[in-house]
């Protein structure tokens, strides 16, 4: 590729042909502000450069109009100026135009403090809003249990559309109408819940404003904690162990497990449990299910079932492939019914009074917990007063808000320990938080169960990392077990199309996580969640795995105890009653 030389703010810079002015400026050490532009939404090179905000405009010598730098390629000999009075005035006016019809209630806005629109107005010293226009008046869409849409705060950057369509291939959102009436909305103008949206929250991660955010359920938890009749237990997902600290100034990927437990105890929860414990339980059930399918000519490849966005994706787009999905519930939905049965019995607590809260990296977990079939404890006790197995799901971002509300000095908390019975998790469970982790954890257990031998090496490096599709094979007593791992629904779709076409028949087990990087990149995680953040969080996950004393699910003493005292055996009667589920073909609306 030929090179192009141009001048930016008096500096000569040479870049390959086709480079944008924005990137050339970066190379010259010149920062041009952007708002709608987004690169690397996820793991693949996804470039969103629709040129909607015009905050990145620059002056090009010889051109009458300013040009947007994020999507204009360089030309030989170009002379560019990035902060002339004309450029600065245009950027400010563009922002003022955006603010003129925006519902500007920053102090009470869910994005206050982490809003890119707010931040860029501060950066560009916007101190007034000269154009005074009519305010937008679109209805707020709170139909989804996971995502809240407020189109009155939308700046039409369309990042959400790219995340949904290109990264996730769900394509649930559209730009509709023109001018003042233009709106980004669920396809066909339907409420979000009535579309094929899988509730993954990747749109919320990239939305620069509060136009798409997670549903806030923190007040339900405050009320439950304050209710003397309720025994409120909380569980924390594997990925939260290395992400919550970011919001309190700790380096990305720091293991904050002990501090998180301490914070939850200070918030007033009666017992603090670890979803890592039920991730180990999931491995027992899912691993045995896989062995059973292999031995009995069951439907293969078996798909993992921990990611609720992925499950809805199969139900919506590939209902014919539902029999491939493991019948195991996700770790969140395993801990819920066990808290209201086994734990209730052991502690002598009326299960009606047990209130289960989950801290999850994922917005789709809110949807999952609300699925009508997730009421196994109610069926177990034949008691309609027990409703859902998991009463409230909070995302990482919501827990962060509760910790701030309570005035807890998170970064300086001492480390505390989870409560017993459902508080011990292994390294295998910890790696559930990263793409490839469920697969690796399953192999650590399946290998030892099938061969009766100790694994020579615990680390399955082939299934780790940000490559979108990864594979590995393991010999177990003469059978070569072949596995695949994919993350992001775009990558999942590639695999699903092949399976539908009759390919990949010789694979046994496929792990899919709806979010890029796995749960560490979940739609409920701290913002920003860039590729760099995802990689550092993954590093933190594997570091924690390495330092844990037990690294295989079947060696977890609390898991051994529940089988001995309550469940008896994996895939047994009680397991089926409490830990397994079914799926629902949904298809296009
Ligand atoms: S979206 Fe940003 S600019 Fe708009 S009200 Fe919220 S915090 Fe303020
Ligand atoms: S939650 Fe996921 S599927 Fe739903 S609109 Fe957002 S990106 Fe699309
Ligand atoms: S909802 Fe958010 S991401 Fe989507 S167009 Fe509006 S401001 Fe941009
Ligand atoms: S960042 Fe270039 S037009 Fe918005």
From TrEMBL:
SUPFAM superfamilies: 2Fe-2S ferredoxin-like (SSF54292), 4Fe-4S ferredoxins (SSF54862), Fe-only hydrogenase (SSF53920). PROSITE patterns: 2FE2S_FER_2, 4FE4S_FER_1, 4FE4S_FER_2, 4FE4S_HC3. Gene3D superfamilies: 3.10.20.740, 3.30.70.20, 3.40.50.1780, Fe-only Hydrogenase (Larger Subunit), Chain L, domain 3, Iron hydrogenase, small subunit. Residues 2-86 form the 2Fe-2S ferredoxin-type domain. GO terms for molecular function: 2 iron, 2 sulfur cluster binding; 4 iron, 4 sulfur cluster binding; ferredoxin hydrogenase activity; iron ion binding. Keywords: 2Fe-2S, 4Fe-4S, Iron, Iron-sulfur, Metal-binding, Oxidoreductase, Repeat. Residues 145-175, 188-217 form the 4Fe-4S ferredoxin-type domain. InterPro entries: 2Fe-2S_ferredoxin-like_sf, 2Fe-2S_ferredoxin-type, 4Fe4S_Fe-S-bd, 4Fe4S_Fe_S_CS, Cytosolic_Fe-S_CAF, Fe_hydrogenase, Fe_hydrogenase_lsu_C, Fe_hydrogenase_ssu. Residues 86-125 form the 4Fe-4S His(Cys)3-ligated-type domain. This is NADH-dependent [FeFe] hydrogenase, group A6. It comes from Thermodesulfovibrio obliviosus. The lineage of its organism: Bacteria, Pseudomonadati, Nitrospirota, Thermodesulfovibrionia, Thermodesulfovibrionales.
């Amino acid at each position: 590729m030929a090179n192009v030389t141009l001048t930016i703010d008096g500096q000569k810079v040479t870049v390959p042909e086709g480079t944008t002015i924005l990137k050339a400026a970066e190379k010259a050490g010149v920062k041009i502000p952007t708002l709608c532009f987004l690169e690397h939404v996820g793991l693949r090179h996804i470039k969103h450069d629709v040129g909607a905000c015009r905050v990145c405009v620059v002056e090009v010598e010889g051109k009458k109009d300013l040009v947007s730098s994020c999507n204009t390629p360089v030309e030989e000999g170009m002379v560019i100026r990035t902060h002339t009075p004309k450029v600065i005035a245009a950027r400010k006016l563009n922002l003022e135009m955006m603010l003129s019809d925006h519902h500007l209630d920053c102090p009470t806005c869910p994005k206050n403090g982490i809003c890119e629109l707010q931040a860029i107005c501060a950066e560009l010293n916007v101190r007034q809003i000269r154009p005074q226009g009519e305010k937008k008046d679109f209805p707020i869409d709170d139909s989804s249990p996971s995502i809240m849409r407020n189109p009155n705060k939308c700046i039409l950057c369309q990042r959400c559309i790219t995340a949904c369509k290109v990264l996730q291939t769900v394509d649930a959102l559209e730009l509709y109408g023109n001018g003042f009436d233009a709106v980004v909305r669920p396809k066909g103008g339907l409420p979000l819940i009535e579309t094929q949206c899988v509730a993954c929250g990747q749109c919320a991660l990239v939305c620069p404003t509060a136009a798409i955010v997670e549903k806030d359920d923190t007040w339900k938890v405050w009320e439950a904690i304050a209710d003397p009749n309720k025994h409120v237990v909380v569980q924390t997902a594997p990925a939260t162990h290395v992400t919550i600290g970011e919001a309190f100034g700790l380096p990305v990927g720091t293991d904050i497990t002990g501090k998180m437990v301490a914070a939850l105890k200070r918030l007033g929860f009666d017992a603090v449990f670890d979803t890592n414990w039920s991730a180990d339980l999931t491995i027992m059930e899912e691993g045995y299910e896989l062995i059973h399918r292999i031995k009995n000519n069951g439907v293969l490849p078996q798909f993992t079932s921990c990611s609720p966005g992925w499950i809805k994706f199969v139900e919506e787009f590939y209902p014919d492939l539902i029999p491939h999905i493991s019948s195991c519930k996700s770790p969140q939905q395993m801990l819920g019914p066990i808290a209201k049965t086994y734990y209730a019995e052991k502690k002598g607590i009326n299960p009606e009074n047990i209130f289960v809260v989950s801290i999850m990296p994922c917005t789709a977990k809110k949807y999952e917990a609300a699925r009508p079939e997730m009421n196994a404890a109610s069926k177990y006790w034949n008691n309609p007063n027990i409703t859902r197995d998991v009463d409230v799901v909070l995302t990482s971002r919501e827990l962060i808000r509760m910790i701030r509300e309570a005035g807890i000095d998170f970064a300086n908390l001492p480390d505390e320990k989870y409560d017993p019975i459902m508080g011990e998790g292994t390294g295998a469970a910890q790696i559930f938080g990263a793409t490839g982790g469920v697969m690796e954890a399953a192999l650590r257990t399946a290998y030892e169960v099938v061969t009766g031998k100790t694994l020579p090496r615990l680390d399955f490096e082939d299934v780790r990392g940000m490559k979108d599709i990864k594979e590995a094979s393991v010999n177990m007593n003469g059978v070569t077990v072949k596995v695949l791992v994919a993350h992001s629904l775009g990558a999942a779709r590639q695999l699903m199309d092949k399976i539908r076409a009759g390919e990949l028949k010789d694979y046994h087990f496929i792990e899919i996580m709806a979010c890029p990087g796995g749960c560490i990149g979940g739609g409920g995680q701290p913002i920003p969640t860039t590729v760099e953040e995802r990689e550092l969080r993954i590093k933190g996950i594997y570091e924690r795995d390495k330092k844990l004393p037990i690294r295989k699910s079947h060696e977890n003493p609390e898991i051994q105890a529940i089988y001995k005292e309550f469940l008896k055996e994996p895939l047994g009667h009680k397991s089926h009653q409490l830990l397994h589920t079914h799926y629902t073909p949904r298809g296009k609306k």
